[in-house]
Write a structure and sequence with these properties.
The structure is a homodimer. By secondary structure, chain A is α/β, with parallel strands linked by helices. Chain A has 15 helices and 18 strands. Helices cover 38% and strands 20% of the residues of chain A. Chains A and B meet through α1, α9, α11, α13 and α14 of A and α1, α9, α11, α13 and α14 of B.
């Protein structure tokens, strides 16, 4: 018997149909759930030390940006915005080596695990060295991301990004963007190069187009016609009002309107941000089957705006959450800020609960679990047979958790406690976080410290 | 020499004039800062293990509400709002004993210390037992708050609350409000009773009027004419739009407008929330010298709205932060949400930085330090002679903190890390939190668990 072919015993667990007591989760030797029994006994099982809930997928990450989280909070001489932040981000990028990229991603992924995520979709556009100088292996930085995910033990959906222009209409890229650039053939070759590497690493491969600014329609069509990843397709869209205006000037249509009209958007797609939509666009995106990739902490930090989540859910739209620039790295803060943005806009409470009597936390968790799975190419998710045993064990010794029942456990975690209520995290049945600690903490921190010291020098 | 008459050595510390290296803080035997030297040597001093910043005062707390944090996130059958939340809150209150009140407050105050607060202004209106039955000692619940603060070792500014009516114009109170009620004479007697008790407990005494709904103008004038606390005066005002409408219907004026026109509002006053103000009210409140008591996490959770902080700061207004209903209990989350609310409204970044080149975190921390001191009756604050040594030691072993310089340390704490970056907290020179732990954790948790079990039963 391998270490992962075993039984986990949960005093309480959140199954797809709701909370159940005395749950035995039988794992196969790949860490996939083979069978679930309720009203079971602990006999032969390993007892998990608190309520067990499914871990979420983090559907949007630019790992390297974690190194600058909190370092772009100095006011400039004019109006600060997303665009002034981006200039600072380009400056940081220009100094990063492959070692730095791996060290930052490993630290970040450990932080994500501790925050309740078991998988991350890495929207990866930092392909080349400073000034755009190619590495000997064009997949160098992608391989570093794969290595970081292995170190952390987090599931990875790797999304190499196509980025060729600085603005709508195929505008020439700026100097700061040189480390990101490919032409279509180079990008397709990168995807081909990465297919076996991701498979060997236990990761999944998808792809991203950075934005409608960064790719022409013809380039997008060529990529979609020839790529063979079979994985998710992500794109940043309608994050900023200036982007909406520029898209209107270029095409006469708004970004989401253009995307849905011109590209074959379906359940394989994830529209990152989609902050600025008309009601018609909101309904159309919801109907497309795509996932909206919401990153509430980053969208607040960057002053993007508030996603029309109540309308979007009313139209049956699917969403998941991502930590994007990583000013937050945990499930609770993202879900809480998503709900709070709606409350501040509407001056009402319980904006995203599924209906009367429903817990806001439960609704948010269920929705983000489904959307995160869709956006990371995860067919089976949640605590059900066939799904990987990606689990969060909340701290049963925490008085707030110990005395809550059912969905109130989730509401306390998400609205009153945050990441401190997470005790253990399992990915594919394997403990990656135990009592708040990761086995690689010391090594990961040492490498990360070295990188931050170098970047700060 | 008593244990507190000693020297603390800080490798880095945030002094009123800015960051300094090798700082020796000489304490007198009361834990007050006697002298500060920069460029000092460690000789004879106790070395603090990371950057040292002043702890803040938490200017608004209803301690008992921490027990229900996260338990009011279930959607009702109609539109959920502040008002449906309040009904749930009244239900919880009706079941609390003095033991419960003390156990909850002790747990909360320990959590606050770990979150970077060294003092709390307790806006205390839970005076009587269920149904309004008086306790044998009318100060019973206040004495429990004093005891909880002593257990935690947090500074306390106790604010007994006058509450007599359910709405503008002296409307009769509802059943759920009976545990809160006093007439003017009973309230003044309570203040007299508490003056020696707070002094003996090392606490300060002020007072509060719950809101313009809860007291008539004549009652407010009588209290102000006869109270002898010498401490701060707090009042909830303009939290909800419905309250603004009711005040207009009653008086023809908006709540802040009425308050500033009819009451002697000055630097002794703290206007809690003040969310809904016209630009004229915003300017008038700023000019009054009062402190605006902002509670960003609660104001988001309750769907109150976004305080006009950029305008208010433009008019030179003073503000501090409070955790109110305690869905958050830490400095970082409150300050971050304050700034994020402004960003989401304006779709720009760096809303509250004091000027070009200024760190947002530094500006927020400086402002909330000053406002929190004013609202809690603290004459001397910050790292200067004459002020109590109320200190937060950030974790110098955290790579993000270890590699940041100057105000970037604050921005990383407030915008990228949160409470996990706090290592130690000292109140009056005494360690109350060491390496994230409080000496009374086990006892406080045991009592709190018992209370939560009873309330959940």
């Amino acid at each position: 018997m391998t270490p992962s072919a075993r039984t986990l015993f949960c005093p309480m667990a959140l199954l797809p149909g709701g909370w159940a007591s005395d749950v035995a989760i039988r794992l196969d030797d790949e860490g996939v759930i083979a069978r679930i029994e309720t009203g079971a006994t602990q006999a032969g099982g390993e007892r998990l030390a608190g309520p067990v809930v499914p871990a979420l997928a983090n559907l949007h990450s630019h790992a390297f940006q974690r190194a600058m989280a909190g370092l772009a909070e100095t006011a400039g001489s004019g109006e600060d915005s997303f665009w002034t932040w981006r200039t600072e981000m380009y400056r940081t990028v220009g100094r990063m080596t492959p070692d730095d990229i791996e060290a930052i991603a490993a630290k970040l992924y450990v932080e994500m695990l501790k925050g309740g995520f078991s998988r991350v979709a890495e929207f990866h556009y930092l392909h080349h060295a400073a000034g755009g100088t190619p590495y000997a292996d064009p997949a160098e930085t992608s391989l570093r991301i794969l290595a970081a995910a292995r170190t952390a033990g987090i599931g990875l959906t790797h999304l190499p990004v196509f980025y060729a222009h600085s603005d709508f209409g195929g505008a020439a890229p700026g100097d700061g963007q040189r480390p990101f650039l490919h032409d279509v053939d180079g990008f397709l070759a990168l995807l081909e190069r990465l297919a076996p590497a991701t498979a060997a690493s236990g990761a999944r491969l998808g792809l991203a187009v950075h934005s409608l600014r960064a790719a022409t329609p013809d380039e997008m069509r060529a990529i979609l016609a020839h790529e063979r990843t079979g994985g998710p397709i992500h794109i940043h869209v309608a994050e900023q009002e200036r982007e909406v205006e520029a898209c209107l000037a270029w095409s006469g249509r708004r970004p989401v309107e253009w995307l849905l009209g011109e590209m074959p958007v379906d359940a394989r797609w994830c529209a990152i941000h989609a902050t600025h939509m008309t009601p018609a666009e909101t309904e159309a995106l919801a109907s497309s089957g795509a996932t909206a990739g919401l990153c509430p902490a980053t969208e607040a930090n960057l002053g993007d705006g508030i996603f029309p989540a109540t309308d979007y859910r009313g139209f049956g739209g699917r969403f998941g959450i991502g930590t994007d620039s990583h000013v937050a790295t945990d499930v609770a803060e993202e879900l809480r800020l998503l709900e709070y943005g709606q409350r501040l806009r509407d001056r009402r409470r319980s904006r995203l609960a599924s209906g009367p009597g429903a817990s806001v936390g439960r609704t948010l968790l269920d929705a983000a679990l489904e959307g995160g799975a869709a956006a990371t190419g995860t067919a089976a998710f949640g605590l059900r047979p066939g799904a990987p045993a990606d689990l969060v064990v909340l701290d049963g010794a925490n008085p707030y958790i110990a005395t809550a029942k059912g969905d109130a456990i989730l509401d306390r975690w998400l609205f009153a406690l945050g990441r401190e209520s997470i005790r253990d995290v399992l990915v594919g049945g394997r403990f990656v976080v135990r009592e708040g600690r990761h086995a690689a903490d010391a090594a990961v921190d040492a490498a990360f410290l070295k990188t931050l010291r170098r970047l700060a020098a």
